[in-house]
Amino acid sequence: MTEVVIVDGVRTAIGRRKGAFSEYRPDELAAIVLDELVKRAGVDKADVDDVILGCVTQIGEQSGNIARTSALIAGFPIHVPGVTIDRQCGSSQQAVHFGAQAIASGDMDIVIAGGVESMTREPMFSNVGNTKVSPKLSEKYEIINQGLSSERMVEKWNLTREELDKYSSESHIKAFEAIEKGHFEKEIIPVDVLQADGTITSCKIDEGPRAGSTVEVLSGLKPVFDENGVITAGNASQMSDGASAVLLMSRKKADELGLKPKARIIARSVTGSDPTLMLTGPIEATKKVLLKAGLSIEDMDTYEVNEAFAQVPLVWLHETGANPEKLNPDGGAIALGHPLGATGTKLLVTMLHRLERTGGRYGLLAICEGMGMANATIIERIE
């Protein structure tokens, strides 16, 4: 089967909800990423076979196939198509999988996979409105929100509020250290933002990390979903705005164009999990992708497991036996934010640059998804 490589990857900084990108249309934000990605790689826009973007809240400015409209805004010729997909929090990771599968099968040579989400301009669940769950679904499964699912996970794995808040505090510490050391500088595209006073500022640093997010401070926050529970705004991911993308290519095409790819995609997996407990999917997705790759968790040099809620990576660590030191070493969504449709490739871009910076070989990415699903991806850095 055709070898699939990642030639490059970029992202915007991640803006807080109602923050730096609050006045920025998501289709225009995604267009900046698409334009910069091909410029960095030195690829002709006309040679791209497809643009696949993840976006969860497909309403308003994010409706009407934002992958297509963003590509047109970015100046891609009209023959380059685009498609928008929703696999919840793993949407852009699934975009990578779909793009890689198209290339591996020989159907395409060059695909851009990424995602975008403005949780400011198109709030989460605004596409759902007053729609209720089908009785035919609720007869089969207990359908609850992710917050209550999180409370049940915490109870099942006997986690304490202190453990959740400690993990969350460490996410902020790691994120600040990564920013200070310049770990994200190469992957972030500076975006000029028009301020209310008419001035223009360049947004090039993630807005999410909050100074003073100590265990003591976090422990003072009230539970959000259950007054007797432990899930708070402090140990959950932040609502955010942002865009990200990677350029996928067959190794043959990369060689033909004289490009040096950064990594190859070794294996992909996707799985369904209990739609009530919902957020346990990364455990089985990880086992599945490791089996496909013929590798073990010990072979991985780093892993990104999305911090939808603090218990997700903690339970994943417990069930996989993974090394905590290798997990989200630059912080995660609790500190850096979680722009739903963009998160998958945002994390992939960060992991890609980390492997390049540290000289690591293998990286694993896993993301839990609404209604009980998960994707996992293993990449190998190319020397």
UniProtKB/TrEMBL annotation:
Protein's UniProt name: Acetyl-CoA C-acetyltransferase
Alphabetical keyword list: Acyltransferase, Transferase
Pfam families found in the cross-reference section: Thiolase_C, Thiolase_N
Entry-linked Gene3D superfamilies: 3.40.47.10
PANTHER family linked: ACETYL-COA C-ACYLTRANSFERASE, BLR7806 PROTEIN
Cell cycle as UniProt keyword: no
Annotated Thiolase N-terminal domain residues: 4-251
Source domain of life: Bacteria
GO MF, any single term: acetyl-CoA C-acyltransferase activity
Organism listed in the record: Psychrobacillus psychrotolerans
Catalytic residues (positions): 89 (acyl-thioester intermediate), 338 (proton acceptor), 368 (proton acceptor)
